[in-house]
Amino acid sequence: MALSIFKCIYCNKEYDIQEIRYRCECGDLLEVIHDLSQSIPNPNDWKKSLDGQMADIAFRRYQAVLFPSLPEDKLITLFEGDTPLYDVTHSIPRFKSIKLKHEGLNPTLSFKDRGMVAGVSWANHLGCENVICASTGDTSAAMAAYAAAAPNMKGIVLLPKGKISPEQLAQSISFGALTIGIETDFDGCMNLVQELTQKHKIYLLNSMNPVRIEGQKAIGIETLHQLNWQVPDWFVIPVGNAGNISALGKGLRELYELGIIDKLPRLAGIQTEGASPLFESFKNGYTKLVPQKAKPTKASAIQIGDPVSYKKAIRELKHFDGVVEAVSEKELMDWKAQIDRLGISICPNSSVAVAGAMKLNRDGVIKENEDVVVILTAHGSKFSNTSVEYHKNSVNQFANQTHTIPPNLKNLESVLNL
Ligand code: F0G
């Protein structure tokens, strides 16, 4: 077999990896399959060699399993990865351990950089001068930044008008992408971008492009490396278009097949109550996906009613004995505030996963004697309006000067009760 191929997840038809193709002839999704026995002939030697490579960037460190076919000189990196894994068990004593993998500490402040290092590098290898994505604001920021870092690449971004945060919007504009607001929701933008890329030679960089998924596998792999390859009982992750949970599952599966880890964790995918097509499907035994008109939510990055990677996601959920849950706006905002209070700034999409872990714990699904890793997907600073709104009383008091004092020591001492 070639080192890497595209393979249909439904009919197993294979395609050359060098081809620009997002779907099988039968219409279903493709995934990348590597012949890992070629890139990793001896898994134990590879595992040992990783220790000496900790200083290298994450993508290169794990490239043999992420995307071995990418030529070294085509790599476009902004030094993504090596994000912290915070142990917050002391503050949330509900589990044997709970750790937060903060993907919001990547260069564009979201996990999307992990997929874009692969996607944009591959576009660079293919010689694509124009790249495009539809986005709820984070894919667009990452694609715009990596396209800007590439030698000869123009980014084009389609955003649902009025549905992304000002910080996210400023990112794609300031990184120089052609940024277009479309009068629809994310699902509408996604349909449009698929139509466009079928007709014109513009390279699609949504996670529907299977190369993106390969880069995102690094999140789970790096987490396990940080845990010295000790597998937790659960990975909990927010779900929108369902690319990230698919990538997490695929990466963990490959590590297991290589014998680098000796057990599989369970997966929990979490959505909001107003945008929960995967949750509804889970409840009906994954018999079908009923696309929804996703309702507005503070977790605007996952306001998605028709997830493109649905089939890949349910395959991983079944393989990992997974569960899906949905949380309310109050639950997600209250948990955002609690994690922020630990000094860990998280976005409302990430707190969906935290709130989901707590709900699953309350319902007895995730037990007190289990080890849990929650994937935080973006930084709080990308969604500062949600923090300002949540803390609006204190913020208003400050703004209205009811909480401010004249600049003298006596006043300050009296406020501090000294
Ligand atoms: N969290 C954040 C912060 C996101 O931006 C996204 C998706 C997700 C979670 C869900 O990941 O789609 O792979 O299930 N954002 C995409 C975007 C849709 O365009 O930025 P998913």
What does this entry show, briefly?
With 418 residues, the chain is α/β, with parallel strands linked by helices. The protein has a domain at 85-109 and 212-393: Rossmann fold. The chain has helices at residues 36-39, 43-52, 58-61, 63-66, 112-126, 138-149, 166-174, 186-199, 210-226, 243-258, 277-283, 310-319, 329-340, 348-362, 384-390, 392-399, 409-415; strands at 4-8, 14-16, 30-34, 85-87, 97-102, 130-134, 154-160, 178-182, 203-204, 234-238, 266-272, 323-327, 371-376.
Entry keywords:
alpha/beta; six-stranded mixed sheet; Rossmann fold; 17 helices; binds ligand F0G; 418 residues
- The CATH topology label of the domain at 85-109 and 212-393 is Rossmann fold
Gross geometry: globular
Measured as a percent range, the helix fraction is 40-55%
CATH class of the domain at 85-109 and 212-393: Alpha Beta
Structural class of the secondary elements? alpha/beta
Mean pLDDT: 96
Task: List the strand order in the largest sheet.
Answer: 4-5-13-10-11-12
Calculate the terminal CA-CA distance, rounded to whole Å.
75 Å
Give a structural overview:
- This protein has helices spanning 36-39, 43-52, 58-61, 63-66, 112-126, 138-149, 166-174, 186-199, 210-226, 243-258, 277-283, 310-319, 329-340, 348-362, 384-390, 392-399, 409-415, and strands at 4-8, 14-16, 30-34, 85-87, 97-102, 130-134, 154-160, 178-182, 203-204, 234-238, 266-272, 323-327, 371-376.
- The protein has 418 residues and is α/β, with parallel strands linked by helices.
- The chain has a domain at 85-109 and 212-393: Rossmann fold, CATH 3.40.50.1100.
- Helix 9 packs across helix 10 and helix 13 packs across helix 14 (348-362).
- The termini are far apart.
- The model has no long low-confidence stretch (mean pLDDT 96).
- Residues 110, 112, 135-139, 207, 238-244, 301-302, 347, 349, 377-378 line the site of ligand F0G.
